[in-house]
């Protein structure tokens, strides 16, 4: 897996975790706001009951206190997950909405206050049942939020895996999102072809086009190293700089993205040797190897899935290279 893909994985994972935390915080905030609003209504009911009815007042006060213990547990969960601010903002919004609704019902509560005094014992029992139902609802909401966070994380892992498959042997230059919500990845493969890949919101391959080759780009700098090899620096339209080591015939012997434009610069010796062998440094052993199809890695994978013979396809990419679009066209007709 290349450094570009690893970097992309990290970005997707960070975005997914942030989205999951926002969802988790909003869920807890809504539950907390509902509990705060219900507690306020019980406090208003307590004010309507005369102090002479001490038993009824004590029971209702116990219910009010139970709400505080429940919201305290929610606050601890929010703090442990680092979403305290989100929970507080959402909870305040829920309380404001509930207060608007409660204002319209204040008159009805006051009219029923006399009847509530006569049946304080029954009202206390009903209030206790309502408090138990609210606690059950809070527990269920927390469980549902946790379950949905897990689903989001699983989807993120699937998307990262598909992105890696759609960039075989390549390095990511840029990634953007179009008006349709599709991800547009611009990458360069080991042969120097610039490949634009379109993925849907689930990370599935939608389209692939070869936008050109690095050797066609205008040089930004050009030097000859100590070994007498030509080293050319070009700039992609995404703004990424790429260093090319060119052979006498102008072919690409090696390419790399300089540290100044790549977040992760560590390269293993094994991957460097493999790239050199694939691009013309293999000697006698390479001369004896059978040359593979002139197709992108994603096109080869799609052809294998659909049972399409690449030798029967004329590529539309640079230098006749076969893309996924060519494979799909051959399969359809």
Automatic annotation (TrEMBL):
UniProt-listed PROSITE patterns: PSBD
Xref: Gene3D superfamilies: Apolipoprotein, E3-binding domain
Keyword Coiled coil: yes
UniProt region (Disordered), positions on chain: 260-333
Cited InterPro entries: E3-bd_dom_sf (IPR036625), PSBD (IPR004167)
One example GO MF annotation: acyltransferase activity
Pfam families according to UniProt: E3_binding
Chain intervals with Acidic residues compositional bias: 263-273, 283-292
Residue ranges the record marks as coiled coil: 28-55
Key word Coiled coil present: yes
Domain Peripheral subunit-binding (PSBD): 294-331
Entry keyword set: Coiled coil
SUPFAM superfamilies reported for this sequence: Peripheral subunit-binding domain of 2-oxo acid dehydrogenase complex
Family statement: Belongs to the 2-oxoacid dehydrogenase family.
Protein name as catalogued: Peripheral subunit-binding (PSBD) domain-containing protein
Organism in which the protein naturally occurs: Rubrobacter tropicus
């Amino acid at each position: 897996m290349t450094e570009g893909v690893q970097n992309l994985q990290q970005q997707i994972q960070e975005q997914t975790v942030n989205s999951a935390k926002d969802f988790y915080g909003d869920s807890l905030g809504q539950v907390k706001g509902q509990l705060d609003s219900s507690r306020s209504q019980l406090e208003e009911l307590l004010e309507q009951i005369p102090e002479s009815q001490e038993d009824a007042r004590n029971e209702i006060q116990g219910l009010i206190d139970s709400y505080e213990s429940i919201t305290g547990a929610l606050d601890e969960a929010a703090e442990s997950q680092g979403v305290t601010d989100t929970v507080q903002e959402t909870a305040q919004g829920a309380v404001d909405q509930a207060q608007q609704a409660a204002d319209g019902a204040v008159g009805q509560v006051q009219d029923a206050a006399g009847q509530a005094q006569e049946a304080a014992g029954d009202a206390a029992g009903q209030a206790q049942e309502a408090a138990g139902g609210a606690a059950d609802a809070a527990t269920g909401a927390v469980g549902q939020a946790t379950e949905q966070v897990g689903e989001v994380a699983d989807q993120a892992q699937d998307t990262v895996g598909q992105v890696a498959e759609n960039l075989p042997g390549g390095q990511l230059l840029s990634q953007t999102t179009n008006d349709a919500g599709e991800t547009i990845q611009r990458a360069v493969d080991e042969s120097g072809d610039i490949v634009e890949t379109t993925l849907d919101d689930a990370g599935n391959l939608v389209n692939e086009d070869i936008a050109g080759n690095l050797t066609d780009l205008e040089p930004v700098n050009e030097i000859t190293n100590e070994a007498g090899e030509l080293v050319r620096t070009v700039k992609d339209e995404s703004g990424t700089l790429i260093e090319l080591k060119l052979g006498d015939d102008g072919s690409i012997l090696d390419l790399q993205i300089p540290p100044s434009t790549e977040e992760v610069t560590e390269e293993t010796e094994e991957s460097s040797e493999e790239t050199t062998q694939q691009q013309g440094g293999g000697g006698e052993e390479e001369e004896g190897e059978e040359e593979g199809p002139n197709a992108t890695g994603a096109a080869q994978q799609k052809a294998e899935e659909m049972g399409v013979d690449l030798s029967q396809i004329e590529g539309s990419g640079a230098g006749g290279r076969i893309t996924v679009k060519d494979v799909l066209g051959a399969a359809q007709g």
